Amino acid sequence: MNVQQNHLSDQSPTLQTSASRRKFLGASAAATALTTMVHTSSARAEEELEIRIGAVGCGGRGKGAVNDSLNINSRVKLVAAADLYAKNCDYMRRAAGKAHPDKVDVADDKMYDGLDGYKRILDDKNIDLVFLTTSPGFRPYHVQEAVQAGKHVFAEKPSCVDPAGYRMCLAAHEQAQANHTAIVTGTQYRRQVNYIEAVKQIREGAIGDIVSAVSRYCSTGIWFRNRTPEMSDAEYQLFNWMHHIWLSGDQIAEQAVHNIDAMNWVMGSPPVSAYGSGGRFTRPEGSEMWDSMSVDYEYPGNRMLSFTCRQIPGSEGDNGNVVYGTKGICYIGAMSRGSRITDRAGNEIWTQAGSIADAYEQEHKDLVDSIRNGQPIVELKQTAESSLTAVMGRMSAYTGQKVSWDFVTQESQLDLFPKDLTWDSDLPKPQFAVPGATKLV
Ligand SMILES: NC(=O)c1ccc[n+]([C@@H]2O[C@H](COP(=O)([O-])OP(=O)(O)OC[C@H]3O[C@@H](n4cnc5c(N)ncnc54)[C@H](O)[C@@H]3O)[C@@H](O)[C@H]2O)c1
After folding, report:
1. How far apart are CA 145 and CA 115, in angstroms?
2. How many whole angstroms from 138 Cα to the centroid of ligand 1?
């Protein structure tokens, strides 16, 4: 990624050049080649078992993900943090240190700010695992570079906001598999008991053949951050990232991808096409996001998904998934609402509770266990496909055209990330899509 250092950096990042590289658990060929130190004492052997974490993106979810990992795993330690803003690194250190004093050791010179502070974490041979929890637009670049640096990765969703980012993710997935390094993504519902058991029931025929599904992620709104006079275009958009499509991907990718991912899981593959519509009624001026979008997704086997996402104050919320089969109906509630199956007459025949808090931790247990077992999980492709499914729906709604999976995977040239991004960059004024006028590229 071509980015230049944030001029607001108040201290030069310290490049870590430690020659004593730690022996990697479940190490890749690439990572093993980087690890030369021979450990002899039992104390050193114990240290080898410790997994050292560097966090990139120290906002709400970054702090949450680090906390989840430190909660559920033994012998893990947060040792470095990077964020656009130095104060956010400090918040991360303080929050994690307060909850887990024995699992946090972040020296002042291991906190890096600015647009390329993350590179210092990737350069640090003492770090085994990086958490990539920035705004989504950076994700493909950060994942790609982290894999190239031989790191194990936890990467939040969505994996990408455009087809160009999707292709980068596929390449990173393959490289991680070749390196034997892990990539676990923030699609926690894949590890939530009521989701896992519901998909199992469906696979075992409890509702017969799947005919169609309805999935909704509808809420009453999302945050908006105001501009202050001294902010450049780039600084403001990075700060108010949710409302700029190159950074968030719009609601359907940023938030509703959770339910799209669940539907791809249930259906067994991404859809073949999307036909979407929607609009923008209540967003603040300066937001590029739509506030409602409905997409008909067609899956292989003539199975249809009716998908809606909405963030409109005063509207009725609904967050969940319903799968209709020839013999029954499966309800998979989001958050911690559980799952249930009824027959076609409405009689309940199966239920299962599930906790999203447990799922948030389980993904970090699975990640660390997989590293220690020498069988690192690599699941980026699956989440990149779900992210691209969301993007395909958005592209269809924005343009007013039916869009196929073949088009988005093979032909689309859409690449939203600004070239030569710096902290002072002038960026195009926010604009929102208009179906019929916005071109499909
Ligand atoms: N899995 C989930 O349930 C879940 C929940 C919330 C958020 N998320 C995802 O987590 C990600 C972060 O969301 P959030 O709510 O924490 O947002 P946030 O705004 O609270 O935090 C993002 C942080 O990243 C930093 N950042 C941005 N660009 C950076 C860069 N290039 N280098 C270093 N730091 C950078 C920002 O300064 C900010 O501190 C998003 O992708 C979001 O979709 C997932």
Report:
1. 14
2. 10
